[in-house]
Specification:
Order of helices and strands: HHHHHHHHHHEE
Distance between the termini: 142 Å
Structural class: mainly alpha
Largest sheet: 2 strands, antiparallel
Number of strands: 2
Helix content: 40-55%
Strand order of the largest sheet: 1-2
Length: 320
């Protein structure tokens, strides 16, 4: 048997574990961490988040209940006037407010009425969009068709002007082509020369063709002369023995461009003709060719007399 002095291990009780003693080094580190946490400057986003949480927590609590309601001066004054809770005003009003109006915080720096102005503009834009007439598919097709007809008529006007120019020049020079040759334009391989006579002496129906050509040639030659004269301004050597042929060969001479007499003058008659509709200008060109040259623009044929026997009519539809 075990002696009484032996410990009874089966009935032994162990006490609580001794608390760990904080050393001076651990305490210093803990205080340092706590100081850093307390001394850290919170960012703007963190401050706004805390402010938002505090505001929502305050708004979630009723102002008519709790310990704060007993200390409220405003609630005490309302109670003296007969307020016993619930909605303000008549009890029969079903739309009466049970809670105070919640505040709406502004996140931007705009004025007080800016949001209402934006809403008004959005509402006006929506109303105008609803009132806007939708484009009909047939209307769009008609507009595209008219634009193509006008472009086609402009090409026909240009072709008719070239025919008028060619036939008038042939009649003046006496070199008209006999028979039914190609009279729908200039002779192949021949470059059209510039007109040297006054523009107002040309019939108005094809005067615009010559005017545009003269203006384009004037601009081209002026640009060329400007490029030739835009060299350095340093002094050059002048040889007294050089004659005109030597200067021309060396490129020292400048060719002046002689403008048409009345190119820069105002032409009211041409302006009135250009203001006409495309179909009206084409009609006048066709009539000019028939009266002056017995030529049908649609038949592409020059007749022998003014009766123009065999021509179906004056318009393109008559020749279909």
């Amino acid at each position: 048997m075990a002696s009484d002095d032996d410990d009874d291990y089966m009935n032994m009780t162990f006490g609580e574990e001794p608390k760990a003693v904080e050393t001076s080094l651990q305490r210093r580190q803990r205080l340092k961490r706590e100081g850093e946490i307390k001394g850290r400057v919170k960012s703007k986003a963190e401050l706004e988040a805390e402010e938002r949480e505090a505001r929502e927590a305050a708004l979630s609590k009723s102002m008519l209940e709790g310990a704060q309601a007993k200390k409220s001066k405003g609630l005490a004054m309302m109670a003296k006037m007969g307020f016993k809770g619930g909605a303000l005003g008549s009890k029969e009003n079903a739309d009466a407010r049970l809670e105070p109006i919640r505040p709406e915080m502004k996140d931007d720096r705009g004025g007080i009425g800016l949001d209402s102005e934006r809403k008004r503009k959005l509402r006006d834009a929506a109303e105008s969009a609803e009132k806007k007439v939708k484009v009909d598919e047939n209307e769009f097709r008609d507009r595209v068709r008219r634009e193509r007809e006008v472009a086609r008529c402009e090409h026909q006007i240009y072709a008719a002007m070239k025919v008028c120019e060619r036939m008038d020049e042939e009649r003046q020079t006496g070199s008209a082509v006999e028979g039914t040759g190609n009279v729908d334009g200039a002779t192949p391989g021949k470059k059209r020369t510039l007109s040297m006579k006054p523009l107002k002496s040309i019939p108005v129906v094809w005067r615009g063709l010559i005017r545009r050509r003269e203006e384009a040639e004037r601009d081209r030659r002026m640009k060329y002369d400007l490029q030739q004269t835009s060299t350095t301004r340093l002094p050059t050597y002048e040889d007294d023995l050089e004659d005109e042929d030597d200067k021309k060969a060396l490129g020292k001479t400048q060719t002046a461009y002689a403008l048409v007499e009345d190119l820069d003058e105002e032409d009211l008659e041409l302006d009135e003709f250009n203001a006409l509709e495309a179909d009206e200008k084409l009609r006048q060109l066709v009539e000019y060719l028939r009266q002056e040259h017995h030529y049908c623009f649609w038949c592409k044929f020059e007749y022998s007399d003014d009766t123009m026997e065999g021509c179906p009519g004056l318009t393109e539809e008559d020749h279909d």
